[in-house]
């Protein structure tokens, strides 16, 4: 089809325009829209017949005058140009420079939609990444190729935690650091600046590609932004053999943009107005992470999801949890006590931990130490709850030990400095120190051998 | 695909509209359910509704780049799978394309428009004809024509396809044949001759026929204590594992795939994570089946429509899995099919119905959700096959309720259909009590039936012990409520011992880590030994407390820690060591009793 311009726009609503009598337009293709006043906008075909085409306008449809609009079908999918020059640059959701420098020129262009990785081509992620954070390394370990989101809430230090992980993450006994793809959707100027400054001061900027859509940028663009960012991540990982860490913040604003468009399209809502396909849509993004047979590079993903009203059952964290390989959950209660990072371990989980830890990866006692700490902490929280009802004085001596453990655990194991980079050994040793406050016989999740080697208590 | 629709009707039409996976085509005469090739790329789809000249097609692949006006071709048959040797050990997508071959052809990412048949055309199999058959014999659906050793463990029976009946005119001798080779001829009543091959096709949405339902009873042993000893499943049963994210549904299913006494395992990853399938693919070829000693992969096949693969094929994947399950059932095997997750299947229904503009009833789901669900589960069951004895399909579906809310449509409809309900609890999972199957809300309709087996094969006290343990757990919940109101001081020694007893059941019996090398599988004998151990200690302790022995005296016994650890110390061949431990503790208790009695008489 030759590129033709149409003046037949017939309807505008909520980020969408309809254009009549445009035969043969391909589903998913890219569109350029002139607003008739010298400005252009970008769009994508999301419904196509010869009689009518529906277009999603990334910059939104505010102030579009139907009479004046010209629509051009570019006869190509939404793509991004890729070259090693992309490192150190900053773009918007469509891959257009935001840093005032020229666009990337390259004959490698890839459609941002991506396609599904063949499960038979994947290899199981199993290389432990040391983040230097005890609650993660010790209890919810991250491995290369894992997607592990941070579930947070407004005002909680998820950005600081993400930045600390970016700074500290390394393979055990290895220095080779990650290339970072940073995708910001709907965040404030201050948050974006925080990350930019962080990358600059820790000297990783040359290894970072940033995609930024601020809170006051067009929301529809948020729908392509993570896809564009992941296309770049795939290029870095599989063409340039790099280990890539993708930080995406905040997926909640992404999902809200999706809901906005879905509502405009008239899609049937499932929960809280979000369309039924939110799960599949999020999965298309999250599942682009992983390891592939015989490829040197990898994609590890750390999305930030803020839980509306701190509600983990809200559709966005809920569906995210159903797709990702665990979650790190931040707690307002710990944060209010001044504990950083305020990781609430009970609802936190890493599903890929099992193959990344233990004798050959971290230390032989690691799996059981994690299980034992979890069991103790669960019991300790029950005791704390009990103490809040009946008063700590009413507790038995056994129970008071749990109460003390809960406090020590929160203060010393969970709490650590923002620049404190604990080795996995330090984390495990600290765990033993805390567990040794209990009689040996109550530590039934640990084996006799491990107790003989590491237990420091009196009996 | 080699067969062509040879009727006179026009198979070619064109595309009118593309709305994501839903494509409207202009193709008069096409039938509902028929397979269609869409566009220049030849994407595969299925007709789901007709309206005059137009047909609505759901496509199993992404429609990006497809244009109105491109061709659409009717293929003349409904969505079908190939059934024959070469399925086991493989991984297929939601419409039975072999993913390993696709990887060879299209690399790490799945290219669209590939049409690879499910079964290998080149590979030859040694066919051993059924010695009881010969020319002139009357044969019919399900008649075993002969066998092929498909894997070391599984003898594949070559069946006459359902629908064919007549006289066997020729049967090939022993030899190596590719699946398309003719291994026999059948002449039907009308005198038409039909070629018989090592494989046949079957439309996935149509249940395969069998002689009759069979009421025999045999438990599906899974090696998981909370399942086998508390909420047992029977072969041919239908069960569900609902639970919020991260509660352990996939692990429960994978444990059943690993350790159950099924002869064939079909694992359907329906809208879930790619890495979970890789986990099976990488570990099963290494793991040993505890019943045959052979590698697990030899009896397993995978169907994968991961969450990032097209939604429509997700709907199909369950039927594709079920049809293959029924096929092995028809050979007289006990098959277990695990569907992770049926919620994603239901969401695929919702997605399509939404795009069709159908009226949603609850949370966007169409009105036919419950009937479709029931029809899917109805394909499970134990049957008398035509010619291969009894066979069964056990269907176990994971359910992923949004927000962990079990009152949502998919969970609640499923609950009405199934017989075994393993409800996972977030509280247990958060405390790392795995499997997080909640003993209060879970149920099994099969306890009495299973008891017969347990009493005969393991121990006559099974049902009584099970009931006692559940009662103790219920008592524990009650007492914990009291403690939370008035504090532990309010409890009597006997009540404290009840709490201790319940804790022994929880930690020593119910908790079972899938990651623990020793404890990941537990034989029925070991299951009962552990249950009996915990309860005997509890009983014995209670008699001492009734004599006035202070509870703290018993709680401090180092042996109690050993009871909690016992499951990971002794494997299923060391049940006698567990009984020995029981005796050791009994002696310790006896010593306390004697000592106490002496103290008392001294006073
Ligand atoms: N029996 C078990 N033994 C040890 N660990 C377990 C067990 N069951 C669950 N887990 C732990 O819980 C994690 C989550 O389990 P699983 O992946 O099965 O959850 P799920 O219910 O399938 O979640 P989703 O709905 O998100 O898929 C596992 O990765 C594992 O760490
Ligand atoms: Mg799961």
UniProtKB/TrEMBL annotation, chain A:
Lineage, uppermost ranks: Bacteria, Pseudomonadati, Pseudomonadota, Gammaproteobacteria, Chromatiales
SUPFAM superfamilies (alphabetical): C-terminal domain of alpha and beta subunits of F1 ATP synthase, P-loop containing nucleoside triphosphate hydrolases
Role played: Produces ATP from ADP in the presence of a proton gradient across the membrane. The V-type beta chain is a regulatory subunit.
Ion transport in keyword set: yes
PANTHER family reported for this sequence: V-TYPE PROTON ATPASE SUBUNIT B
Pfam families assigned: ATP-synt_ab (PF00006), ATP-synt_VA_C (PF22919)
Biological processes per GO annotation: proton motive force-driven plasma membrane ATP synthesis
GO molecular function: ATP binding; proton-transporting ATP synthase activity, rotational mechanism
Protein name according to UniProt: V-type ATP synthase beta chain
Gene transcribed to yield this protein: atpB
Native source species: Lamprobacter modestohalophilus
Family affiliation: Belongs to the ATPase alpha/beta chains family.
From TrEMBL, chain B:
GO biological process: proton motive force-driven plasma membrane ATP synthesis
Residue span(s) of domain ATPase F1/V1/A1 complex alpha/beta subunit N-terminal: 16-76
Keywords, alphabetical: ATP synthesis, ATP-binding, Cell membrane, Hydrogen ion transport, Ion transport, Membrane, Nucleotide-binding, Translocase, Transport
Boundaries of every ATPsynthase alpha/beta subunit barrel-sandwich domain copy: 117-205
Assigned GO CC terms: proton-transporting ATP synthase complex
Binding residue positions for ATP: 243-250
SUPFAM superfamilies, alphabetized: C-terminal domain of alpha and beta subunits of F1 ATP synthase, N-terminal domain of alpha and beta subunits of F1 ATP synthase, P-loop containing nucleoside triphosphate hydrolases
Primary enzyme class: translocase
Domain ATP synthase A/B type C-terminal as annotated: residue spans: 452-541
EC numbers for this chain: 7.1.2.2
Matching Pfam families: ATP-synt_ab (PF00006), ATP-synt_ab_N (PF02874), ATP-synt_ab_Xtn (PF16886), ATP-synt_VA_C (PF22919)
GO molecular function: ATP binding; proton-transporting ATP synthase activity, rotational mechanism; proton-transporting ATPase activity, rotational mechanism
Domain ATPase F1/V1/A1 complex alpha/beta subunit nucleotide-binding: 223-444
Record's catalysed reaction(s): ATP + H2O + 4 H(+)(in) = ADP + phosphate + 5 H(+)(out)
Protein family membership: Belongs to the ATPase alpha/beta chains family. T3SS ATPase subfamily.
HAMAP family cross-referenced by the UniProt entry: ATP_synth_A_arch
Function comment: Produces ATP from ADP in the presence of a proton gradient across the membrane. The V-type alpha chain is a catalytic subunit.
Protein name listed in UniProt: V-type ATP synthase alpha chain
């Amino acid at each position: 089809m030759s590129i033709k311009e149409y003046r037949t726009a017939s309807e505008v609503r909520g980020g969408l325009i309809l254009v009549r009598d445009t035969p043969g337009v391909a589903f998913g293709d890219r569109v350029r829209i002139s607003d008739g006043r010298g400005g252009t906008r970008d769009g994508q075909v999301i419904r196509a017949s010869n009689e009518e085409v529906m277009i999603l306008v990334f910059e939104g449809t505010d102030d579009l005058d139907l009479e004046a609009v010209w629509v051009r079908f570019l006869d190509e999918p939404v793509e991004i140009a890729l070259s090693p020059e992309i490192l150190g640059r900053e773009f918007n959701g469509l891959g257009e420079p935001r840093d005032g420098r020229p666009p990337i020129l390259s004959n490698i262009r890839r459609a941002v939609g991506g396609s599904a990785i063949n499960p038979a081509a994947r290899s199981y992620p199993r290389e432990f990444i040391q983040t230097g954070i005890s609650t993660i390394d010790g209890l919810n370990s991250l491995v290369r190729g894992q997607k592990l989101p941070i579930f947070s809430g407004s005002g909680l230090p998820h950005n600081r935690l993400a930045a600390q992980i970016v700074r500290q993450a390394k393979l055990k006994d290895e220095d080779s650091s990650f290339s970072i793809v940073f995708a910001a959707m709907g965040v404030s100027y201050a948050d974006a600046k925080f990350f930019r400054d962080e990358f600059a001061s820790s000297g990783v900027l040359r290894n970072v590609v940033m995609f930024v859509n601020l809170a006051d940028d067009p929301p529809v663009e948020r729908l392509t932004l993570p896809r564009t960012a992941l296309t770049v991540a795939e290029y870095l990982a599989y063409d340039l053999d790099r280990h890539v860490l993708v930080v995406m913040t905040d997926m909640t604003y992404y999902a809200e943009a999706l809901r906005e468009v879905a509502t405009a399209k008239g899609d049937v809502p499932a929960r809280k107005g979000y369309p039924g396909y939110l799960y599949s849509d999020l999965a298309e993004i999250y599942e682009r992470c992983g390891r592939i047979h015989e490829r040197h590079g990898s994609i590890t993903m750390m999305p930030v999801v803020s839980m509306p009203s701190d509600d983990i059952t809200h559709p966005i964290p809920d569906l995210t949890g159903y797709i990702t390989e665990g979650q790190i959950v931040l707690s307002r209660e710990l944060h209010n006590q001044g504990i950083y990072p305020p990781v609430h371990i009970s609802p936190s989980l890493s599903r890929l931990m099992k193959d990344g830890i233990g004798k050959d990866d971290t230390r032989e006692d690691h799996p059981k130490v994690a299980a034992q700490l979890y069991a103790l902490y669960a019991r300790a929280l029950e005791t704390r709850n009990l103490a809040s009802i009946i008063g700590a004085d009413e507790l038995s001596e056994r129970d008071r030990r749990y109460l003390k453990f809960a406090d020590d655990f929160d203060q010393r194991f969970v709490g650590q400095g923002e620049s404190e980079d604990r080795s996995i050994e330090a984390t495990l040793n600290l765990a033993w120190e805390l567990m040794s406050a209990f009689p040996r016989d109550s530590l039934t999740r640990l084996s006799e051998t491990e107790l003989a080697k590491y237990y420091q208590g009196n009996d | 695909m080699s067969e062509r629709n040879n009727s006179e009707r026009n198979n070619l039409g064109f595309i009118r509209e593309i709305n994501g996976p839903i494509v409207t085509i202009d193709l008069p005469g096409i039938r509902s359910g028929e397979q269609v090739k869409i566009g220049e790329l030849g994407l595969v789809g299925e007709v789901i509704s007709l309206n005059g000249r137009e047909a609505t097609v759901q496509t199993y692949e992404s429609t990006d780049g497809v244009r109105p006006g491109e061709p659409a071709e009717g293929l003349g048959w409904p969505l079908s799978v190939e059934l024959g040797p070469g399925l086991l050990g493989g991984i297929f997508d939601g419409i039975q394309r072999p993913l390993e071959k696709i990887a060879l052809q299209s690399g790490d990412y799945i290219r669209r428009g590939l049409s690879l048949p499910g079964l290998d055309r080149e590979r030859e199999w040694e066919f051993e004809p059924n010695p009881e058959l010969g020319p002139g014999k009357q044969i019919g659906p399900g008649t075993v024509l002969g066998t092929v050793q498909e894997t070391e463990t599984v003898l594949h029976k070559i069946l006459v396809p359902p629908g064919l009946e007549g006289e066997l005119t020729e049967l090939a001798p022993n030899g190596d044949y590719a699946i398309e080779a003719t291994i026999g001829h059948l002449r039907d009543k009308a005198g038409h001759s039909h070629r018989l091959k090592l494989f046949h096709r079957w439309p996935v949405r149509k249940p395969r026929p069998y002689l009759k339902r069979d009421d025999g009873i045999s438990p599906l042993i899974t090696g998981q204590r909370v399942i086998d000893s508390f909420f047992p499943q029977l072969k041919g049963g239908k069960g569900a594992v609902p639970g919020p994210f991260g509660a352990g549904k996939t692990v429960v299913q994978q444990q059943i795939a690993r350790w159950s006494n099924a002869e064939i395992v079909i694992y359907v990853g329906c809208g879930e994570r790619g890495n979970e399938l890789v986990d099976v693919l990488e570990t099963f070829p290494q793991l040993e089946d505890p019943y045959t000693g052979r590698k697990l992969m030899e009896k397993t096949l995978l169907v994968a429509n991961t969450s990032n693969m097209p939604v429509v094929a997700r709907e199909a994947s369950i039927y594709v899995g079920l049809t293959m399950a029924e096929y092995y059932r028809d050979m007289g095997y006990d098959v277990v099919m695990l569907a992770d997750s049926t919620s994603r299947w239901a969401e695929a229904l919702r997605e399509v119905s939404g795009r069709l503009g159908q009226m949603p009833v609850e949370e966007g789901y169409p009105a036919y959700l419950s009937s479709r669900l029931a029809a899917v589960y109805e394909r499970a069951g134990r049957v008398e096959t035509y010619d291969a004895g009894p066979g069964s399909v056990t269907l176990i579906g994971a359910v992923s309720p949004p927000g962990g809310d079990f009152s949502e449509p998919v969970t609640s409809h499923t609950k009405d259909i199934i017989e075994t309900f393993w409800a996972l609890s977030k509280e247990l999972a958060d405390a790392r009590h795995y499997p997080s199957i909640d003993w209060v809300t879970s149920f099994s309709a099969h306890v009495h039936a299973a008891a017969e087996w347990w009493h005969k094969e393991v121990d006559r006290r099974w049902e009584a012990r099970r009931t006692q343990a559940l009662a103790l757990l219920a008592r524990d919940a009650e007492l914990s409520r009291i403690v939370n109101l008035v504090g532990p001081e309010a409890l009597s020694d006997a009540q404290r011992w009840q709490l201790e007893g319940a804790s022994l059941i929880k930690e020593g019996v119910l908790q079972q880590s899938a990651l623990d090398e020793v404890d990941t599988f537990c034989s029925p004998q070991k299951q009962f030994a552990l249950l009996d151990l915990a309860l005997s200690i509890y009983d014995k302790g209670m008699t001492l407390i009734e004599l006035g022995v202070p509870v703290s005296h018993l709680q401090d016994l180092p042996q109690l820690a050993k009871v909690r650890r016992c499951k990971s110390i002794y494997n299923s061949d060391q049940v006698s060591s567990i009984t020995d431990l029981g005796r050791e503790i009994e002696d310790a208790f006896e010593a306390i009793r004697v000592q106490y009695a002496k103290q008392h008489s001294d006073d």
